[in-house]
Design a protein that fits this description.
mainly alpha; 8 helices
């Protein structure tokens, strides 16, 4: 069942001028209706967008995750499939209705509840991309022998680079200290992305943004912000801190 479309103005909506021509009363009714209509429009588009994106997500999961990670070693056969999914996601992302478009430069104190549905849709797109690119990041991290030759394949290289960019965006943009219904999923996502980034650094197989460690520190700071409410985050924060120290030590040794 799909929800009914947003309601239209009607006599019952209260949008009528009073008999004495009270323009202020009319304006307040119109303001109330406008806010209600905008909220309904966002909810309507969010629901339809979520249904469509979930269908693409399910196809990605069924294609790449039906078997275990060993199936990712045959990376050549996965490339054209991934590029097709990538094109589908791009089309959806570029054609979202205005109510669902989100400015991903908004962080921290600039975030407001009025943006929460568009923010959730943007996160859904980011999550889909994470699932899509994960097999190629796994391959790049673990394949030290054939990778240099395979990176001559521009399509494979673009998928690996897009996966790395996706992990860094997740770390950067999902560290909001804003309480909402999807907070636990945000924390899980930024921890997973942090581990992926550090695995890439440790492998040395792919060039990574020099500011990667600062982004990991922001994740650690976010975990510290919430750890009083979720004791297991204390352990998670400690693991990331220890890995960060190890990665920094590894990078220093490579620079000698």
């Amino acid at each position: 069942m799909f929800p009914s479309p947003p309601s239209r103005p009607s006599e019952e909506s209260g949008l009528r001028q009073s008999d004495d021509g009270d323009a202020l009363s009319f304006g307040w009714d119109m303001y109330q209706y406008s806010n209600k209509a905008q909220s309904e429009e966002k909810s309507w588009y969010y629901y339809l967008t979520e249904v469509a994106l979930r269908r693409i997500s399910n196809r990605i999961l069924n294609t790449f995750y039906r078997q275990d990670h060993t199936s990712w070693w045959d990376v050549s056969r996965l490339i054209p499939i991934a590029k097709e999914f990538e094109a589908q996601i791009s089309v959806w992302s570029n054609n979202l209705p205005p109510a669902m478009q989100y400015d991903n430069h908004i962080t921290g104190e600039d975030f407001s509840p009025s943006r929460e549905l568009s923010w959730a849709t943007w996160n859904r797109l980011l999550e889909m991309k994470t699932w899509l690119y994960q097999p190629f990041l796994y391959y790049a991290i673990h394949n030290n022998t054939q990778l240099p030759d395979l990176l001559e394949n521009s399509a494979l290289r673009s998928l690996i680079e897009a996966g790395m960019d996706c992990a860094l965006k997740t770390v950067e943009h999902r560290t909001l200290r804003h309480r909402h219904h999807g907070l636990w999923f945000d924390i899980r996502a930024i921890v997973t992305a942090s581990l992926t980034v550090m695995a890439m650094v440790k492998s040395g197989n792919v060039k990574i943004d020099e500011q990667w460690d600062g982004r990991i520190l922001s994740v650690i700071g976010t975990l510290a912000f919430w750890e009083d409410e979720s004791p297991d985050l204390v352990k998670t924060k400690k693991v990331l801190e220890e890995l960060l120290l190890e990665m920094r030590s590894t990078m220093r040794r490579r620079s000698y």
